[in-house]
Amino acid sequence: MNKIVLIISLLVIAGSLYAQQYKVSGEIKGLDTNKGYMFVLDEDAPRGFRQDSVEITNGFFEFERETEEPKVITMSFRSDKLLKWVGHGKRRGYIPTKSALLMFIAAPGTHVKISGEATDFCNAYPSGDRENDLLAELNRSVYSLMNEMVNLSRELQMDTTMTDSQKEEKGKKAEALYKQTIDNKIAFLEKHASSVAGLWLMEDMLLRSQIEIEKVDELMATVDAHKYGNYADYKKVAGRIKGYKETGVGMIAPAITGVNLMDDKEFKLESMRGKYVLIDFWGTWCGACLAGTPEMKKFRDKHADKLQIVGLAKDRNVEQVKKCMADNGMDWPNMLIGKGEQDYVAKYNVQGYPTKILLDRNGKILLRSVGESEEFYQEVEKLMR
After folding, report:
1. Are 97 and 178 in contact (CB under 8 A)?
2. Helices (H), 69-193
3. In this structure, which topology does domain 19-192 adopt according to CATH?
4. Cys-Cys link to 193, which of 42, 147, 198, 290 (CB 3.0-4.6 A)?
5. For the structural domain made of 257-384, what CATH number should be given?
6. The pTM is what?
7. Which of 176, 127, 119, 121 is CA-nearest to residue 143?
């Protein structure tokens, strides 16, 4: 075999390992739609995921796609049976809930089989290999609880005849269901952290502040790093743990470098040494982030002699971020959160938006906060004194 043929053969083999076909087939009984919408995590997509449509005929569907590695994929349905509608007319919307979604794990060369029914939630689960069986075990333990909880939430919003005592009773029941859901998730992780579903669940729970990072650190010690170490969710969770250990109060903030969207020039966080710095994690999609921007700007202006803001946007669309900056008067350095060394969400263990982190004049972390409140700025003012 000559060198050119050998090189081509190796490239073909490498390509087949890089992205391979997987197949999904099955039936969801009682599904009142002929279209499904599959959401696939894609770091290069504008919103961090891409959408793909799937045809459904009388509840049956079958399709083949490609994937580079095992990953959790969700499928939603525009189904009146599954969507939890609230409000009326132009104010009509629905309460998002995972129990309305089909979830499965796509892996190169696998055939995932789906079975179940659409009641008032997606009581359908995958099978076909160990990883999908474990994901099914997880969702069977939480979907009915989630569904009951969101039904209560819907009732509280829609039923105007309820007395205060009835509202209180249903609110307490919803809280109990939420706690049971969290307990069931953690019980699953205690047994199956070393799985695709386990890694996905740890990342998802961290994003929603449903689990302590110390607990995740403990669970990650049980994960087979040789088997799962190269998977995206393993890297994300491991990155968050590293970020947690390196970005607590009293630690020197990790380096931040990137293109400043204010002037398209290179920016380095260390260039702000000598002033207090407020790092703001935000996104164009985050209503609370944008609602809090005027107060943050007002506070910065009040202390302009000693305080600067640095924004880190969780977005992929540069032009959309720049427009949002202009519309909201964000006249401070802003960068996009990227991947690898520029994945500042992982580096700083960000678990909600907006997250604000105050640094002293030497780059030491003084305060971390999630959300918007007047008390935060009072605390910042106290620390800067």
Report:
1. no
2. 130-158, 164-192
3. Immunoglobulin-like (2.60.40)
4. 198
5. 3.40.30.10
6. 0.78
7. 121
